[in-house]
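Lab notebook, bench 4. We co-purified these components, and the gel suggests they stay together. Before we commit to crystallization screens, I want a quick structural picture of the whole thing.
Request: model the full complex, all chains together.
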Amino acid sequence: MFELLKLACDIATRTGCQFADARYLDIRKQRVMSRDHALSGCNDSEDCGFGVRVLYQGSWGFASSPNYSAAEVEQVVTLALQIARASARAPRAGGVQWAPEPPQKFSYRSDCRVDPFAVSLEEKAGLLVSANEVMLKNDAVKRAQGYLLFKRVQRWYANSEGAELHSDVTSSESVIWAIAVGQGDFQDRNWKAPSCSRGFEAYDRTEFLAQAERVAAEAEEKLSARLAPEGEFDIVTDSENLSLTIHESVGHATELDRVMGYEVSMAGSSFVTRDKRGRFRYGSDAVTLMADNTLEHGLATQGFDDDGVPGQRWEIVKDGIFQTYSSGREFAHYVDEERSRGSCRADHWSSIPIVRIPNLLLMPGKQELGPEELIADVRHGLYFEGMDSFSIDQWRLNFQFGGNAVWEIRNGKKAGMLKAALYQSRTPTFWNACDATCDASHWRAHGIMNCGKGDPMQIAQMTHGAAPTRFRNIRICRGRDA
Amino acid sequence: MKREQCENLIAGILAIPHAGELQVTLHGSERLGTRFNDCAISQNTLKRQHTLTLCARLGQKQTSLSINRLDDRERIRRSVEQVFANCEHMPDDEELLPAPGNRLESREHAYSEETEALDIDSVGRRVGDACHAGAAAGIDLAELLCVKKEFAAYADSAGGFAYERSHLCDYHVTASGADGSGWAEHKGVSLTEDALMRATRRAIDKCRGAQHPKVFEPRPATVILEPQAVGDLLSMAFWCGFDQRAADEGRSALSDFNEVLGRLSLYSDPASPLFPTVAFNSGGEALEKAVWLDQGRPQQLVTSRYWASQKQIVAKPSPANLILSGDGSSLEDLIRGTADGILVTRFWYIRSTDPKTLGFTGMTRDGTYRIENGAVTYPVVDMRWNDSALRVLGQVIDSGVPVATGEFFPMVMPALKVDAFNFTSLSN
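Here is the predicted assembly.
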């Protein structure tokens, strides 16, 4: 497989390119969907092709093709060069400063014990439809749905420096949800089997059925929940809810390409300017956020990134102080780092790599602490579980998040459910309001499979982890008028 | 791929022996994407793709399989066998209907000879010109020029066939100053150099007017939403709330809804000269003009063929564009008629906060200004808002001339002047 990729790099080098790399991807996906008592669809796809990126006289060119042959490789390199020459009409002052990386040759395979593509459709249908049937036993539930998504990406990478890398990553995701109708309202409740780089062994029928029953009951309970109060309250978030807050308010904020203005035309920039490195108080002492692209079963764990840099582990926030960014080889020099953090990924063989959020983890508290004790120290507050409405400004400062289920906390105990609750804050204010996070025994990882960034948009995946965590005096508002 | 090539390829696929019904969708695109920031090109890409989707049906069972290699006949034959083999393992779905079997005329409203002729060099030249305009003005520009050339074909074993080519040009530019930014776009099936430079100059002007913003304490205020802001809000509202079955089953904001939403009409029309689209969907259904709100009165919503058969009504497929009628006022007139308000260039990160009321939240971005006594007086710090799309439509005071916009979906929207839009907190 490497032969033609190396041919692409050789042609580019002979033509005078400073750097070239070539990737071949073989992507297989299956999405199985259920609606009430039936499967509403099963879509398989097979998608393969290659892309060639060249750096010519300080300007980038990229072209791609699904047809993998020597003649096509030659044409695609020619096209990439033509595009690089067109790019040179508006070159970057000082050119591209490409961080060095010793060329490596290795192969990475994610942990996949049961190949999901080899599991029968009957078994997958059984998992989803039986969960739906459990949810539909609840009379308030008028619609039960779910899906299973499996993805296998095999990737071969070579560059003009001599790297030859291969990865084979299988990932999966499943969600079931119930929509309850009644009392002049409708409400949904879902359960996500944590998305991760694992095979079908990640799915357990018994757990699906147990979660289905809980989801249906809580969807019904949401119908009669009272509207959330407004004002300042202490909040406790579960690990799933907080994983999205980590993603939006820390993950995107600390992508170095955004900071340097490369994403201004769409995703925006960041308030975490370079002068903040090593000294800005991002959060309280309880907040340490670790990037880890070596995390087992992590969705951003792929062995190496699409600049040919192996996965790494580094601190983004340590004891509340901002340390450094996620980066790629084009960006490391902006913060005087000699090596890329290995966090540059493309979502397809026809996409150019961009800086992406790594697996990003809020480290658990060092003291023994469980969620009940966390809640026990709240007189009047809210407990947020699961992901719902999420919105953040283009500097990653002002944000507002909901939860898929929210409970009131009264005198240290979870009381009734609340409707339409949203927490609104500014990133440093919020993280500095964190006064405790539970210990490692309560820490959970949650995958994000649909992170959009880039222009045109690319979709990436990564994992976030956290334990239940408490924040003091956070503004609560409502998504529905009283 | 030309029509004849598609017809030949699809005829060969339909001729592969198979047991049940086969639907074939073929889609191809070439996308030139040039992106720059800080007045330098940061990405320049050419993306060519083909996708062949085979949808097999055996009785009340159905599955699909997509592949992207069209030059490997043996692989295609194996794929046809595989999709039918998968189909046998599916449980029955009582909601499946036979393929429509429509032979549709190729209308190609969204095809432009001018865009077809654009190549890497001409796109690079246009972007270079915009870069130089930014450099000359001493302002950082970040932008994308994306030119997409596509074709779509559909066929089924009941004799249905459709084929169309289409184009889409998307240019949007953000101009950044020390503490404020401006934004403008051009969208449509073609892009002239004049249109690109007009958008660039507009972004630069907006940016100049956005420096040194002041705080406007967030509260309900009269607002003028420019077309992109309107498009972003209404596209979210449409996809969250305008489904007939969900409405009939109590799962929509428009369930048992008897109110009139202002006086504007919302409709779709693939033949709209302002933003034409392909006139059929991936299920082989023709897309015709469809009215969703008639002078504010909700009409029959998006209705699948299955739901239409259950309710004995006509099917109304999901549209390919959305058009909101306007009152025809110019933006200047809207501003002149406003004693106290806020002008919003665009929104960002709109998300649902309450499906029951079509409640949404979002931020203003890239040019938010105070209006006092009929004139724009100063820029204001960006704000978050929380409001209901239904309430916004019901509170329109005046509106402008519809223009092409839409971040992810073709929209033709006027500027709207809305009473008591609910700003709730400050941004940066």
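Residues 213-428 of chain B form one domain. Worth comparing against the SEC data before the next meeting. Residues 120-137 of chain B form the longest helix (18 residues).
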